[in-house]
Design a protein that fits this description.
Distance between the termini: 17 Å
Structural class: mainly alpha
Shape: globular
Number of helices: 18
Helix content: over 70%
Strand content: under 5%
Length: 486
């Protein structure tokens, strides 16, 4: 039921987007976008599966509770999500840029605005998905500033317009203009290649290759619109047939109705299903962006409203300032004199990279301290100093309360101490960080069983199988208890 709440409206909205694209963009561009969007999604899902499960010997970073359909290790839910997000971002960018004739149909403005829309929508969708169990990330890290959404989840959505939409537009509109449109095809393979290493680049540059890629992509999305625009040729819609005869207001109404359906589904999910009003914070950025697209008002008005909301609502509404600030910058930059644009292009990367580098250095020091503390705690446990091990794990958790390693290892120490109540408490905390984990749910069932709470333990084992019907440990545990898995 919860999966249908997401999948059915999304599929219907994509069908509406295909009709909209046929009317506005024509048969050729519609076929290219949706066909290659699906192919891109299949390739992306399977490559990420190979990198995470084969290359690193780990687990796929996100898991769908009820996978509807997919090609090999890919999921149709994810493909529909990428396609819908990029297309809506495209429509929103066109509508917003139409108010600024100097930047109408600008390639880089369009891609950057689509990336901003994807980022805003991802926050809303990921928050609801994790709360309702549509899918969950197996990264073991939650953001302190976003509602249970790992930064990697936001970065994944942001990267799709860079990986797919930029090459698509460049080739669809500029295929005969030399080498550079074809060169954009290298972006996606490069993105996947940098994920082959989790090692820091160096002691002086303590970031991973894929974090560097995301940072460069973010700088590109920020700064590319400040360059001289590369103007896209106009789209040519169908000129015959029933779709061509649809009234012109359909071109404007369909994207607006589509985002209304998406926001409506998320609102129902947050308030009526998850019953967590806190999730409404995650709807604020994409709702604010939609208002900026459809309600004409001066940039200072939007900046003022975003500032007021951030002051009243606190850090969970800070993303509104980012949304408003970027759109005002990208729409107003054409008024800047040439020297001011050059100053921005040179100064902004420096102004943004220096604090990013300093933060990376500070986080690297804490990460090293965290890893060293966990290693000392594990060594203490192996030599039999269980109380000392627990104290060290407490220190590690204080350093990184959103990372699961210390919790997992400490829970095992509690089990060895036969302190099953504290083990239970730790596993429940872990399940807050990683809600859809058959391993953690099975471990919780084990400590419940050891406390004599058999009914709760059996329900935990069955919940683990609902997370992953192929999870052998939970199935075998129920079999040994003489119980069916269902």
């Amino acid at each position: 039921m919860r999966t249908a709440l997401l999948f059915i409206p999304s599929a219907l909205v994509v069908l509406a987007m295909i009709l909209h694209s046929l009317k506005v963009r024509g048969r050729r561009e519609t076929l290219l976008f949706f066909l290659f969007g699906f192919v891109f999604g299949v390739l992306r899902g399977n490559i990420i599966w190979w990198i995470t499960t084969v290359h690193f010997g780990g687990r796929f970073p996100y898991v769908f509770t009820n996978k509807v359909f997919g090609v090999l290790h890919d999921s149709l839910q994810a493909d529909i999500g990428w396609i819908l997000t990029v297309y809506l971002g495209w429509c929103f960018a066109e509508r917003l840029l139409a108010r600024t004739p100097e930047r109408a149909r600008s390639l880089f403005h369009t891609v950057s605005l689509a990336a901003l829309f994807a980022t805003a929508l991802s926050y809303a969708v990921e928050s609801s998905a994790i709360a309702l169990g549509w899918w969950n990330w197996n990264l073991g890290v939650k953001s302190r500033f976003l509602i249970d959404v790992p930064i990697a989840g936001i970065a994944a959505w942001f990267s799709v317009p860079i990986d797919f939409f930029l090459p698509f537009l460049a080739l669809a509109r500029f295929v005969r203009r030399g080498v550079w449109p074809w060169a954009t095809l290298a972006i996606f393979p490069l993105h996947m290649l940098v994920h082959l290493s989790n090692e820091r680049l160096s002691a002086s540059v303590p970031i991973t290759p894929f974090n560097l890629f995301y940072w460069i992509a973010a700088l590109f999305a920020l700064l590319a619109p400040l360059r001289r625009p590369v103007v896209l040729p106009p789209s040519i819609g169908l000129r015959s047939g029933w779709i061509a005869r649809l009234p012109t207001w359909v071109s404007t109404a369909v994207p607006a109705l589509a985002i209304a359906v998406v926001l409506g589904v998320l609102l129902i999910a947050d308030l009526l299903v998850a019953r967590d009003p806190r999730l409404l914070y995650s709807l604020a950025p994409v709702s604010f962006l939609t208002a900026m697209v459809y309600l004409p008002a001066p940039g200072w008005v939007w900046l003022g409203l975003a500032t007021l909301a951030a002051v009243i609502g606190g850090k969970l509404l800070w993303p509104l300032l980012l949304v408003a600030g970027l759109i005002v910058l990208w729409r107003a930059e054409w008024r800047f004199p040439a020297f001011a644009r050059r100053l921005l292009i040179i100064g902004l990367p420096i102004a943004l990279t220096v604090p990013f580098w300093l933060d990376a250095r500070a986080r690297d020091q804490v990460d090293r301290q965290y890893g060293d503390t966990c290693s000392r705690a594990l060594a203490a446990a192996k030599r039999g100093d269980l109380p000392g091990s627990v104290r060290l794990y407490d220190q590690a958790i204080a350093l990184r309360p959103h990372i699961v390693r210390a919790y997992e290892e400490q829970a095992q120490v509690f089990v060895h101490q036969q302190d099953y109540q504290r083990a239970e408490s730790t596993y429940r905390r872990l399940l807050e960080l990683r809600p859809i984990s058959p391993e953690l749910m099975t471990n919780l069932g084990n400590v419940l069983y050891l406390q004599g709470r058999q009914e709760e333990a059996i329900e935990a084992y069955r919940t683990a199988l609902r997370f992953d019907p192929a999870y052998v440990t939970a199935r075998e545990t129920l079999r040994r208890l003489g119980l069916p898995a269902g």
